[in-house]
Amino acid sequence: SSSSSSSSSSSSGDVDISDLRLSASSEAKQRFRRLQATERTALVSGMLDAVKKAAAFRLANMAGKAMGSSSDTTTAAQWKKSWNKMVLDAKARNHGQTAGCEGVAAKMCTYYFKSIFLLHRGCKRDPLSVNAVQILSDTVHAVSCGDDGLCWVWKISSGTPRQVFFPYRNCPSAKPLAAVYTVSVLNDATYIVSADASGTAYIWDWRLGHQKTSTSCSGGPYLSSTEMPAWRMVLLGCNNSYTYVWQWDTGNTLALPYNARSTAQIIGFMQSNLVAYKNTRLDGMQRLFAEKAMMTEKVFLDVVLAVYPGLKEEAKLLSNISDFFHKNTFGAVNAVCYVPTRLRFVTGHADGRVRYWSAESGTLLMVMRGHQGPVKAVAPSPTSQEAVSGGEDGTVRLWCLKTGIQKLLLYQPYGGPVLSLAIVPGGTKVVVGSADGYVRIWDLSTGLLLCAINTGGGAVNGLAVNPSNPVGQIITASQDGYARVFNPR
Length: 489
What we know:
The protein has helices at about 1-10, 15-35, 35-65, 70-95, 265-280, 285-295, 295-305, 310-320, 320-325; strands at about 110-115, 130-135, 140-145, 150-155, 160-165, 180-185, 190-195, 200-205, 210-215, 220-225, 235-240, 245, 250-255, 335-340, 345-350, 355-360, 365-370, 375-380, 385-390, 395-400, 405-410, 420-425, 430-435, 440-445, 450-455, 460-465, 475-480, 485. It has about 500 residues and is of the alpha+beta class. The radius of gyration is 37 Å and the shape is extended.
């Protein structure tokens, strides 16, 4: 019956696993019984050694996992090394672009290379960058400033230098000139404003290179500037989050936001109140003690509270003065532009916001949010109450300043951060300078990318578009230390 059962199982194709296990076990037992005593002892000893090794490995492995030991640390280090290698490989393959983003196929512009200005670069192996460029009112000359600390006026058609400016200082001086971050041509066609890393802005005559006057920012360098239509007024954006309206003929300045106070102003306010309190509320012995023993404001407050314990609440108020007044958390003013349709202006900040101001009243009219990172450039529309902004997120956004609504998003993260902007005369096109060394021209009415120019000079830190002679001529300020001129065909 067993044989018939086996034959029927074989014919049906089914295999009984339990039978196979029993047969294998019985065969193993028979082979073990046939072994000699010495052979049996060796086999059992080997089996015990294998069990011990397996148990030791298991214990070590479990201990490593339980304690987060070196094995996990080694694995994490290997993963990090592999990850960094992958990221570096991606960056190497897409140098100058944002890794992981694909560029949009754009035809090359019909612009042709006209001229180049060479003198900013310097003679060392590492070039000194050109940071800003503007076209003078005569549309024949341009001014460019860079890391060399110099502002050159040169002829656009040939790149021939005409004049140079650098701040007055004692000669000879071994101290290098501070890098210049911004430059703007004033509407009187004679003077230029430039600002450098020392935190000083200068007004100078471009015809002779003579310094007229200067002003300083207490919280860091001025990063942006623009001219105002009012007589001898300019706007300066500082690293301390404030925008300054500077009447350079009289030297008066007004900081915006107006209702905030700088740290220096707050300290001065507190110190003046402390001195007034000491002189009017303490007697002679107490004042003498304060003069001899007071080293900090806290010590003085302790003296006051010891004399008048009921003034504890006033002391708390005094300590909170900074929090009450200092509300400016906008971040560095990286860009500023005057809106020609109104006596108003736009600022771009490190907090990613675009702000719209009234120059007449100092009122903040609108705050526009959208950029996922610092705003690096702003440009006004010449025909409507609109402005364009560009940021480190690689996007360009068109804003309605009256409502704060984003009307258009130009998406080009493949080009890296947007560093500079300029509106083509007529207001229908915007020229965008990016970190990948390309200049891209977009149609503001359709949102389409029209064409691109490969400047070949690295990051495009500054841009200027000629309103005439010829219309649409583009000048770039590049990281490689050269200013290039491109003419439309």
